UniProtKB/TrEMBL annotation, chains A, B:
SUPFAM superfamilies: Bacterial exopeptidase dimerisation domain (SSF55031), Zn-dependent exopeptidases (SSF53187). GO terms for molecular function: hydrolase activity. Coiled coil: none annotated. Belongs to the peptidase M20 family. It comes from Rhizobium anhuiense. This is Zn-dependent hydrolase. Residues 205-306 form the Peptidase M20 dimerisation domain. It comes from the Bacteria. Pfam families: M20_dimer (PF07687), Peptidase_M20 (PF01546). InterPro entries: Amidase_Cbmase, Bact_exopeptidase_dim_dom, Peptidase_M20, Peptidase_M20_dimer.
């Protein structure tokens, strides 16, 4: 078993890198604070016997050699980047648990048969550069490296430039490392486990998603002098889109639908809004439900706001994880006396990309009040240690196969 | 009559100071570009025989002495500040027409009996510092100078500091100048004159307004993992407020109601919005209509979004202009062969404050498509010249009284 206290103290101490508010994080992908936590991760892993390899999208692989030649790597991991006002556990737990597995192996002197890697995927959150889960997407061939390098943030800096700036455009071609299995430990980010009372979640898969952009043009006019009947108020139209988006989710349970972001121009009290841009996020566990939500919302928007310009910027189908790995995790949870719930992940994860080419599974631990992408995100030291120990035991079992 | 070509070329040439886009303006109150246009205005007026006086809120008075001792000043004016994405005529026309009256008097060698002043009021727009019509409000004793100096912009710079920074905290106490009459020429900023076909508007008064701030707190959560039934989505609540605001105007014609500005946190696509702030603008020609709109909207918001926090940041009752001055303007319009419509102003104006202590009236010219607070704001050279000539003729008539 691994050192839960050490895991907890690393979570707290690395949370200083990009801290935001009292218990929050603002460590955007490829920012200076991302660079700083990457250096910490690399030097920690090197001290535990790893070589640290970086690919051309900045994914980091801390690799321990295995005892039996010719075997593919068993990998665990997650991400060290955060939302602009996120928490201390989302992604971070999975990478830091991997570091503690390295430490447990180092301390015990035990060598695995397979090579073993702890992965830090680049830009899981998608807050600075869209889409989310970028590094794992390139690794798995879902995105082409050239077009991803050319994407830019709001300041116009491209992914390629941001990688160069922090020195993380690595020499390896993304996807270079053959993996025998990939496991990811993560906080649930929803209220299901807490409500159910189970200690851990065994994730059956990840729901699908659609990201839509909506642009609504109206006519800027004087808020006092321009009559109601002649107005083209882009914010009034946008409000209808926000409510239609919420309604579509209620119509297709267990689907969820969110307008997370809105930009209004000129955004001045006494000016009728002339232009609004909205960012919509739709999710559903079934591809059919997701397709129906998308089609109906597009039709609703066309009816309510005929002048709206819509574009679908990302479509991802639901993903199923590997049944054998899920069974192995179930058995190890029983061995550790951890009650487990089989559940679908509401959030997207790097594992959802990796699953396309590698046998993959995920372990969840509860999130207090189900909160995530929130500075109040919290899981207890015991919950973190439980998840990390289950991850370690699962890795040891898989290594025997 | 005055030089319409000169007026037009001054509108175009000073529009370079704080130009925004192709035909727009971004000359926020007390900014560097505001300072630059103030210097232009002062030197132009000095060259035409004026002394330029500045009060402690930065209002500028370019004063010509009169021939008959002991008379109060006849003033014309408006403002040289603009919206962040405004037009080239709003406010600017009224000040530049005043400069052309000075030039006409200068060229003809004619001296008025009364002292004559062209006024540039500080911060009419209210885009950088709220409330709007700030300088004229202090001049007329509606606002206390100390509390106005202490107000700050989004960067935390106070009005007092901004005045010092551009050297426009003047030596005169606001309100020092006794006025016999105040006339303001302005673009209509709405579509009424264009639709009616009249050449000019004679403004009977200015409608009243209410500025409300609404703050809605929800709970930030993961847009994929947090179930719909448990959400407190601040943007969904805000959308209801936007639609309720629009509905209230339709219920109380000819009232208008606008949510011009919205701020969402954290404003990230895959995060359920945790907090939204809205800025509402309500107007009505009747105080009773305005009060009903306010009361009913407050009740609607309390019912739709019980957790909303509301505050009224500004209340201004409708204002009636001086009947004698309006009649004088009407007669002069007839003399010039300009068809005139008597109308209420939809927009607020410095004249609405000045009217509290000085006999006041306003002249409108048409706005193309009724557009203002918009880069496409436009009135033709002929329309500008018509308005300015009517202003000149009215001043000459009032001077005889
Ligand atoms: N796990 C997580 O927060 N992923 C970010 C991508 C998403 O699901 O919105
Ligand atoms: N005339 C004008 O645009 N005034 C600004 C204040 C307002 O009416 O909103």
């Amino acid at each position: 078993s691994l050192d839960g206290d050490r895991l907890w103290s690393n979570i707290l101490s690395t949370a200083r890198i990009g801290a935001h508010g009292k218990t929050g994080m603002n460590r955007l992908a490829l920012s200076a604070s991302d660079a700083e936590v990457r250096e910490w991760f690399a030097s920690e892993c090197r001290a535990l016997g790893c070589t640290v390899e970086v690919d051309d999208i900045g994914n980091m692989f801390s690799v321990l050699p295995g005892s039996k030649p010719g075997l593919a790597t068993i990998a665990v991991g997650s991400h060290l980047d955060t939302q602009p006002a996120g928490g201390r556990f989302d992604g971070i737990l999975g990478v830091l648990a991997g570091v503690e597995i390295l430490r447990a192996l180092h301390v015990s002197g035990q060598m695995l048969r397979h090579p073993f890697a702890v992965v830090n995927w680049t830009n899981e959150e998608g807050s600075r550069f869209s889409p989310a889960m970028m590094g794992s997407g390139v690794f798995c061939g879902v995105h082409d490296i050239g077009s991803i390098h050319a994407l830019s943030d709001k300041e116009g800096l491209t992914v390629g430039e941001a990688l160069d700036k922090i020195g993380y455009r690595g020499e390896h071609i993304a996807g270079y490392l053959p993996m025998a299995a990939y496991l990811e430990l993560h906080i649930e980010q929803g209220p299901v486990l807490e409500a159910d009372g189970s200690k851990v979640g065994i994730v059956s898969g990840v729901q699908g998603l659609r990201w839509l952009d909506v642009r609504i043009r109206g006519t800027e006019a004087h808020a006092g002098a321009f009559p109601m009947t002649l107005r083209e108020d882009a914010l009034v139209s946008a409000a209808k889109v926000v409510l239609a988006t919420e309604a579509i989710a209620h119509k297709y349970p267990p689907g969820v639908a969110t307008v997370g972001s809105i930009h209004v121009a000129p955004n001045s009290r006494n000016v009728v809004p002339g232009e609004v841009r909205l960012e919509i996020d739709l999710r559903h566990t079934e591809e059919s439900g997701l397709a129906a939500m998308e089609a109906e919302l597009v039709a609703d928007i066309a009816r309510l706001v005929p002048q709206a310009e819509l574009s679908v910027v990302w479509r991802k189908s639901p993903v199923l994880f590997n049944a054998t790995l899920r069974e192995t995790i179930q058995e190890e949870a029983e061995g550790l006396g951890l009650s487990a719930l089989h559940m679908v992940s509401g959030a997207g994860h790097d594992a959802a990309h990796v699953a396309v080419k590698v046998p993959t599974a995920m372990i969840f631990i509860p999130s207090r009040e189900g909160l995530s992408h929130n500075e109040r995100e919290y899981s207890s030291p015991q919950q973190c240690a439980d998840g990390a120990n289950l991850l370690l035991r699962s890795v040891l079992r898989i290594d025997e196969i």
